[in-house]
Specification:
The protein has about 220 residues and is an all-alpha fold. Helices cover about 80% and strands about 0% of the residues. The protein has a single domain (about 55-205), classed as Ferritin, CATH 1.20.1260. The protein contains six helices and no strands. About 20% of the residues are buried.
Amino acid sequence: MAVTHDVSTPAAARSNRADLTRALGVAAVVGAGLAYGAAHHRRTARQRATTADGRRNTLATYLREHLSGSDAAILVLERVRRSNAGTKEGSLFASLYDQIQHERDMLRTLLSELGESSLSPKRVATKVTGSLLGAVAGGQRNDLSLFRTLEGLAIGVQGKRCMWRALQSVDQGFMAASPQRFVELEVLAMRQWEAIEERRLSLVPELFSGGDGFD
């Protein structure tokens, strides 16, 4: 009886192994692609979160810096509104004192909405500095110290105006206040500056122009 050999078996096996190898290769490529896609998605999500957190932290730092400035202004105004009571300057200082108190509350609210504290080492240091400034602020109409106090307040109010203007363009996802509210606060800052400048310039003739001239 003749014995026949299935010569097609080795070839078929080789073909099957080749198909399996190709399938495994495709699966590896697809798996690697999926793994890369998942890793990229996680990395992108982390970057987005980090970027958002970074912007939030930067904004909080900026707001705390202006809060520190308002702390110093309040300490100065607390003194000069008392020492100038009954004068036009005293009325201005009292009005500014109340307005800046409300603005400080606004800044604290904004920081709370960001999930940030209003406290910082810089604020503590500023309060100490503000106390020192308050101790030397004031004076009467013919004193240079009053003129300097008004000038310092004018500069501070301009900085505050810049802040309100910048906040008009901040992503509203960070805070509940509308851009229109910041527009109103910028307008208020402009009016404050104009009122301070009016009083400051009214002192110039008495301080600098009342003498007999220069030799």
